[in-house]
Amino acid sequence: MKRIYFLLVISLAVAMSAARGYAQSPMPDGLTEETLRLNYIFTGTDKEAVISLYNMNRSEGWAGRRVNMTEAPLRGNGQIILKDSATCKILYANSFSTLFQEWQATEEAVKTRKSFENVFLVPMPSAPATITIELYDIHNQVCATFTHEVKPDDILIKKIGVSEKWLASAREGADKDFAEKEPMPYRYMRRGGTPEECIDVAIVAEGYTADEMEIFYKDAKKATDDILAYEPYKGMKEKFNFIAVGIPSQESGVSIPHNKDWKKTALESHFDTFYMDRYLTTLHLFKLHDALAGIPYEHIIILANTDNYGGGGIFNSYVLSAAHNKWASPVVVHEFGHSFGGLADEYFYDDMYSPYYLPDVEPWEQNITTLADFSSKWADMIKGDWKDAVVSKADQKTDTWKKDFKDLKSYKVGVYEGGGYQSEGVYRPYPTCRMRDNAYPDFCPVCRRAIERLIDFYTTEVSSHK
Ligand SMILES: [Zn+2]
To answer: Domains of the chain by range and CATH?
Structure first.
């Protein structure tokens, strides 16, 4: 009896230390508790891409994931892979999309060459390592690659950010001058746990003057609540930290080129990206990450102080969202679906066939399919043969379907033609979704599952990945 009791005590102690050990997971071998910030310039045209290293920075602490380190969360339009130079073992991998690749599909890219800033955060290796960046084209083939070495003792890797102690004193005042001091003043909007345990989302002010900072913190709280009101975030909110970072701008509002209105703002963002009036982005990623130095962050939401409608979201890069119009709440959730969830747009244009997704290539985004490899998508969520669940473009034009759609009668997971901007050849999982329509107040079941899987990937070790 005593023996059993003793064993029970031991196994309890082991279980408790395992739980504690999990929450405070040490970094895997070969990686340290420091962040390496890699600044690149991507240059090219519609047909070519050249990746160049601009410089490297380092900062204390690692706010990124501590589990499933050697695999990228999704395929993405590109990946960054960190390998130990001596053993060639993968230490860390991540995936992303870029504004540069979106630009490569525009008319302008046929006629001219342009450069774009890109920033990636990886854990600092403890020994010399190689970094490889790969970009993928619409055929899902590698179209550009670049490998360089990083030595942890390189004296030209500048240290940025400051210690926790300095941070605590900086937090006292909200009126620090952006140009002179770092880090920026910040406030937690929602704290699920430590940066080591949680997914850290920084919400950054753009176009708010120092006098308007309280408006920003209110907007940031609203954006946090908007996102956490949706499943699956709602049920998993303890896995998130939201931190509002009050960067002051010289002028109030953001630039709207089609109104010939240019403003002096912290991140120099503007509408009319690629001449699309509602597309709001910033090209100044170095500046954005400079402003976040010293703050624990992984994902970025930039709130723009404007009532003009628009936004943009780039997978594992950032969201830019207008804070003051009647669609501000659904738009920030939609754009975060792109930047955090890696989800595709489920809307499409009836009158336009843009061959963005090729019929023989299965897109990596989890909420659309070309049927090239549908078994890798949501076939398991359809009862019976999925081929019977296909609703073609023509089927969606019948009066019965329109009526059912209005009455929510046909709201079940299926294979609905139209999605990813294409009315033909691309299919979505549900009649409507947060990724399709601003008025629909939910993610479809497939998007919900995709986001939930990502949250799990970032926070829970999957044994098959070890
Ligand atoms: Zn969806």
So the answer is: 31-158 (2.60.40.3250), 162-339 (3.40.390.10), 348-356+368-457 (no CATH)
